[in-house]
Amino acid sequence: MTRTKLIDPRRRVLVAVAVAVAAAAGLLATTACSRLADTVPTTSGNPSHSPVAMRLDKPKKLLGSWNESVDRRLRKPAIKDTDGFRKLLKGEPTSAVGTAYTPVEEQYSRELGVHRPGDNRVILVNGVSGTVTAPNATLSHVFAARPAITDVVPVPPGPLGGVAGCGSSQSKDGLTKFCTWVDDHTIGMVTFIGFPQSHDQHDLFRQIRAEFEHRAP
Prior knowledge:
The protein has about 220 residues and is of the alpha+beta class. The chain is about 25% helix and about 30% strand. It has a domain at about 75-215. The protein has helices spanning about 10-25, 35-40, 70-80, 80-85, 135-145, 200-210, and strands spanning about 55, 60, 65-70, 95-100, 105-110, 115, 120-130, 150-155, 165-170, 175-180, 185-195, 215. A hairpin with an 8-residue loop joins strand 8 (about 150-155) and strand 9 (about 165-170). It is globular. Keywords: Signal.
């Protein structure tokens, strides 16, 4: 009798997070990828040349109802991934964020640890604020340094301006989507894990950016 090996959905999420973070950190290699700089390098938006300084702050609730994860296995990679963005700033960052959000309230048990019953979607958000000297070039660099993120296309950045692009990374655990924005004061990335492949995250990306990016006091 042949037994079918069942994959724990909690493990699937953690594997997907690991793959997503590796892709975002440029640690994976792939071929035949479509780079933003190779397609339309400057049409993802008008770079914002605002004298008003901006900063990034975490909302208590994301998208009105998503909770910040208490699972260190999700949050730690997002925090660590901000380090690469710090190096793209001129000078020191004025703020930095790296966190994860889940659509359901997380629960803990001795048997399962921290888990998310009924919904394994995760949104990772990481970014920095400071001085960005060349938003278009910085956006191209972000994706060029991450070859595992493929099918990169420019997208409208929304009312906050700057430039933006989105791409994806495919693994055996599913499709992970990445969207990045850059303006004169901030660099940020939103990673969507566990969403249906047919789901368009572009509007969510712009909404999430607006919930994180604010004028500096």
